[in-house]
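Hi R.,

As promised on Friday, here is the backbone we talked about, encoded as structure tokens. Could you run it through your design pipeline when you get a chance and send me back a sequence?
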């Protein structure tokens, strides 16, 4: 994307609040993130929207992060009928049954330790890369993991915002 205003950004800036809220909910389940991004409209550039998203993500409380994470299915189990989670988790689609079973076990162990799903920006990652990441991160402290999750959510939000801005007008 360029530093200019794109047709998608112009459309987003012009959306009624309810429509803009719904569009942002597709990007992130955090109501605090959505309301803060909406309050800063209009955005002059795509980069300004990304910068606002990053800044708001950095400010989210543990409760806000938990709300954001609740919108993400476990790796290897995308939500049925949800093209976004299926697309983002494409790296697990062709994984062996052994790898899928291992990811299920690791997801459960991670969730038991941290109280939430293992969250990673899965776009472009293989099943093995995601497995290796959960194995590495399960040894983190809750505080370390919360900041890693915050960074991963920020990456996911940027990808989803880019898709939102690239979608054709309905």
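Update: got your reply. Pasting your designed sequence below so it's all in one thread:
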């Amino acid at each position: 994307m360029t530093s200019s205003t794109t047709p998608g950004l112009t459309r987003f800036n012009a959306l009624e609040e309810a429509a803009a809220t719904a569009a942002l909910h597709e990007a992130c389940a955090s109501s605090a993130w959505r309301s803060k991004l909406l309050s800063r409209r209009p955005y002059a550039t795509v980069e300004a929207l990304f910068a606002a998203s990053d800044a708001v993500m950095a400010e989210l409380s543990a409760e806000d992060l938990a709300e954001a994470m609740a919108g993400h299915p476990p790796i290897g189990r995308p939500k049925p009928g949800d093209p976004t989670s299926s697309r983002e988790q494409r790296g697990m689609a062709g994984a062996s049954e052994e790898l899928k079973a291992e990811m299920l076990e690791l997801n459960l162990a991670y969730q038991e330790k941290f109280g939430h799903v293992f969250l990673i920006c899965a776009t472009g990652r293989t099943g093995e890369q995601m497995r290796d990441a959960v194995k590495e991160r399960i040894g983190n402290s809750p505080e370390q993991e919360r900041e890693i999750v915050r960074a991963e959510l920020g990456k996911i939000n940027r990808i989803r915002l880019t898709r939102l801005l690239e979608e054709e007008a309905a």
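One thing I noticed while checking it: The longest helix spans residues 142-166.

Thanks again,
M.
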